[in-house]
Design a protein that fits this description.
CATH superfamily: P-loop containing nucleotide triphosphate hydrolases
Number of strands: 12
Main location: membrane
Shape: globular
Order of helices and strands: EEEHEEHEHHHEHEHEEHHEE
CATH class: Alpha Beta
Organism: Cyanobacterium aponinum 0216
Radius of gyration: 20 Å
Number of helices: 9
Keywords: ATP-binding, Cell membrane, Ion transport, Iron, Iron transport, Membrane, Nucleotide-binding, Transport
Subcellular location: Cell membrane
Protein name: ATP-binding cassette domain-containing protein
Structural class: alpha/beta
CATH architecture: 3-Layer(aba) Sandwich
Oligomer: single chain
Strand order of the largest sheet: 6-7-8-3-9-10
Largest sheet: 6 strands, mixed
């Protein structure tokens, strides 16, 4: 099973430093979720891990070798990444999109094989979108489209999947649908999955390992019950909260404490 880690990693854009001297080991075969306030560096870290952003210092290691020293095709056969709000050409069908996930496995002398076809069909089946394979992507619901993009990353047949805010702009039902799918894929295929997620309670419910980031560094990491504490939420998000046990999953459940107290307002004069 592929191992991915970061050592003394520094990342940034132009003259702005976002992440400095970060160390992280991603648990193999588990779901790791990155949480933190806006601008803390979650997506930047994911881009660094996914070889989209080149380190300023340090390195990301895939099986002990710096990922930027490996061939692009080698990395693409080991690691699949789904960016935030991906776009596709107008008129592209679901199957055509999923086929793109096989490009890293193609060779100039043999562009399509029975293995390619099998992996595409398997990805469509696992995400439950076989019936939509010949429909244009634009005609699907938000949840169905996200399943199609996930199917494309599955068709790569990589051991590691990276997803940046895969539930953005989806309604609650479709958010749960997508996260349930990722959990199922993790259990069935033992894929290592790394997700950037904003919703704290969903992160605690679906993560095996939580990484809480603050201002470009890792403030806390560990099991959800170790990271989702009122003290850590206060430090990372600047939010007072009360943590209880989710009555359905027994995972930590964050109840924000608002500064607004309805009893302070006297409406009798209205």
């Amino acid at each position: 099973m592929k191992q991915i880690s970061a050592r003394k990693l520094s990342l940034g854009y132009q003259n702005i430093d976002i992440i400095n001297n970060l160390n992280l080991d991603i648990p193999q075969g588990k779901i790791t979720i990155l949480i933190g306030a806006n601008g803390c560096g979650k997506s930047t870290l994911l881009k660094g891990i996914g070889r989209i952003l080149k380190p300023r210092q340090g390195a990301v290691y895939l099986d002990g070798k710096a990922i930027h020293q490996q061939k692009s095709v080698t990395v693409a056969q080991s690691l699949g990444i789904l960016p935030q709000n991906p776009t596709a050409p107008e008129g592209l069908t679901v199957k055509d999109l999923v086929i793109q996930g096989r490009y890293p496995h193609q060779k100039w002398w043999q562009q399509w094989t029975l293995e390619d076809e099998a992996q595409v069909n398997k990805a469509l089946a696992m995400t439950g979108i076989q019936e939509f394979s010949h429909r244009e992507l634009d005609t699907l619901s938000g949840g169905q489209r996200q399943r199609a993009w996930i199917a494309m990353t599955l068709a790569q047949n990589t051991e590691i999947l990276l997803l940046d805010e895969p539930t953005t702009f989806l309604d609650l039902a479709h958010q749960i649908e997508v996260l349930d799918l990722l959990k199922e894929l993790n259990h069935k295929l033992e894929r290592t999955i790394i997700i950037v997620l904003h919703e704290l309670n969903q992160a605690a419910r679906y993560a095996d390992y939580l990484v809480a980031m603050k201002e470009g560094y890792i403030y806390a990491k560990g099991k959800p019950e170790e990271v989702m504490t009122s003290e850590i939420i206060k430090e990372v998000f600047g939010l007072e909260s009360h943590i209880i046990s989710d009555p359905i999953t027994n995972t930590p459940l964050c109840i924000p404490i608002s500064g607004y107290l309805p009893t302070q307002i006297n409406l009798s004069s209205a």
